[in-house]
Write a structure and sequence with these properties.
mainly beta; 2 domains; elongated; Immunoglobulin-like; 4-stranded antiparallel beta sheet
């Protein structure tokens, strides 16, 4: 047996050994599950907090709020997914603003087709303003644990929005663009 044949034989034996390790395996690998999408519901991306005057008009708004962006990542386990969200919330002083801070309430709802709410959690964020500052913002770092209960992550969506009292809903119907 020549040295060349011995080298080819050793290479072939190595390939056979590697085939047992999955390099040439025909069994499909299970793809990693993607994170559920996190989306801001545009009708609920804006809110207003009114001053003490009973009128619900732009001149009576103390603060406007905006859910600006959300970034997410996740860790998927066998039966659950842990979502880490960075939610950017912007506040703006209105004509009736008093004070140097405002609290906004928003929610994160876990939904599955067909628009079924599986879970909904409220969150509160405080935005502080320096004197004479019109706009300010914060990045709220939150975590949401979601049991999968037989679902895949692609079945789920995280919907974010401000918790809207009826007077704010009516305000935005009458004064669009604010």
């Amino acid at each position: 047996m020549t040295a060349g044949r011995a080298a080819r034989g050793a290479a072939l034996a190595g390939l056979v050994a590697l085939s047992g390790c999955g390099l040439f395996s025909s069994a499909p690998e299970r793809p990693a599950q993607a994170c559920p999408a996190a989306v801001i519901l545009r009708p609920l991306a804006n809110t207003a907090i009114f001053g003490p005057s009973p009128g619900r008009r732009p001149e009576n708004v103390a603060f406007y709020g905006l859910l600006s962006e959300v970034e997410s990542n996740c860790t998927v386990a066998a039966q659950s997914v842990l979502m880490k969200l960075d939610v950017i919330v912007i506040g703006q002083r209105g004509a009736a603003a008093k004070g140097d801070s405002v609290d906004f309430d928003y929610f994160v709802a876990v939904t599955a087709p067909p628009q079924t709410i599986l879970d909904k959690k409220p969150f509160r964020v405080r935005i502080g303003f320096r004197p004479n500052q019109i706009r300010a913002g914060v990045t709220d770092h939150i975590e949401v644990a979601i049991p999968l209960v037989g679902r895949t992550t692609s079945d789920l969506t995280l919907d974010l929005g401000f918790q809207q009292p009826p007077d704010v809903v009516d305000f935005y119907k009458r004064f669009r663009g604010r």
